[in-house]
Amino acid sequence: MAAKDQPSEDLDCAICFEPSATQTTLPCSCNVTYCNRCWDRALAQSYNACGEARCPTCRGPVCVDFDPDRACLVFSRESTPPVEEPCEGETALTRAMQRRTRAQAKLREQARPVQVRLLQRYGAESAGFRRFLEAPEEGFRQMSVPELKSHISSLGVTPEDDVEKEDLIRVLLVTIQNPTFYAIVFSNMFGAISAAPTCICGCHLQRVSGQERTWRCSEKFAGGHPPGTPMFEAVYRRLTEEGHSVCFCDLCEQNVPSACAVWTCEQGDSTILHATSYDVCDQCFFRCICEGCSVSPPMPSVSSVGS
């Protein structure tokens, strides 16, 4: 049963109490009306609270899948797993965490090709990006000094106040010969434009700094303790000082260091499609954009800089 709009008689949603011209077809036998948005959020809240997606009315477990062909969520009644003898040292909590991990991995695998296509389309529609890839030096020369400094700062380097524009261009052209730094610089360019790429859930991806991403993770790990409290500050300090990975990329599944920027969904964990978080690293973002442009990042020559 899919999360596609189902015609109704403008019944009120049982959660937001707003008339719902469309409603979700429930996988259980509950005779209740939910709008698609409230049903999605309810499943996400249930998942974060107990590790399972459950109907907000009957509390019956819901199996969630993502159909990559139709690009929509599909809900069905969760089958009761067979009773198995626990392995030595295995606890109920351990088994619950394993089920949760499998559910997350399944949705991530189902959604990955659609997210890749969305980013490729985004790259194909960005004509300016293609031109910049083909002539990076020319593109840098059209930028202001503050813009050039911003791109250098995205690499974790603070330029001097009185540095000349030619020196900034030289630094960037040398730096982007490293594929990793190339991805960071160009992802930073996209992070500054208004047209944000679309997330798999239908909202948008926004590029946030490593500091901001660590801050958001600290809010969750601190158990509801707000910024400024000893608990929050202790968690934030530990993540920052020890350089822990605060997230992993949902495309390549590699850990992202806390110092690195990341593309994260503005909807956060309020959708069952990514009930914990959703992040794309700069390298995957850049790779997909280039595939959409049908352009391979050139290795720029620096021989003409400053001449």
Give the ordered list of helices and strands.
EEHEEHHHHHHEHHEEEEH
The overall average pLDDT, rounded, is 84
The helix content is 40-55%
Largest sheet: 3 strands, antiparallel
Q: First CA to last CA: what distance? A: 65 Å
Report the β-strand fraction as a percent range.
5-15%
Q: Helix segment count?
A: 10
Which secondary-structure class do the elements indicate?
alpha+beta
Task: Set out the fold topology.
Layout: E1 6-12, E2 19-23, H1 36-50, E3 62-67, E4 72-77, H2 92-124, H3 127-134, H4 136-141, H5 145-153, H6 165-175, H7 179-191, E5 205-208, H8 210-221, H9 230-241, E6 245-248, E7 255-257, E8 262-265, E9 279-281, H10 282-293
Antiparallel strand pairs: 1-2, 3-4, 5-8, 6-7, 8-9
Helix pairs in contact: 2-10, 5-6, 7-10, 8-9
What's a quick, concise take on this entry?
With 307 residues, this protein is an alpha+beta fold. Helix content is 43%, strand content 14%.
How would you describe this structure in keywords?
single chain, 307 residues, alpha+beta, two-stranded antiparallel ribbon, 14% strand, globular, disordered N terminus, disordered C terminus
Structure in words:
- Helices cover 43% and strands 14% of the residues.
- The chain is globular and about 70 Å long.
- It contains ten helices and nine strands.
- Among the domains are: 1-79, no CATH class; 118-209 and 261-293, no CATH class.
- The strands form four sheets. It has a three-stranded antiparallel sheet with strand order 5-8-9. The protein has a two-stranded antiparallel ribbon with strand order 1-2. A two-stranded antiparallel sheet has the order 3-4.
- It has helices at 36-50, 92-124, 127-134, 136-141, 145-153, 165-175, 179-191, 210-221, 230-241, 282-293, and strands at 6-12, 19-23, 62-67, 72-77, 205-208, 245-248, 255-257, 262-265, 279-281.
- α2 (92-124) runs parallel beside α10, α7 crosses α10 (282-293) and α8 (210-221) packs across α9.
- The termini are far apart.
- The protein has 307 residues and is an alpha+beta fold.
- Mean pLDDT is 84; it is low at 1-5 and 299-307.
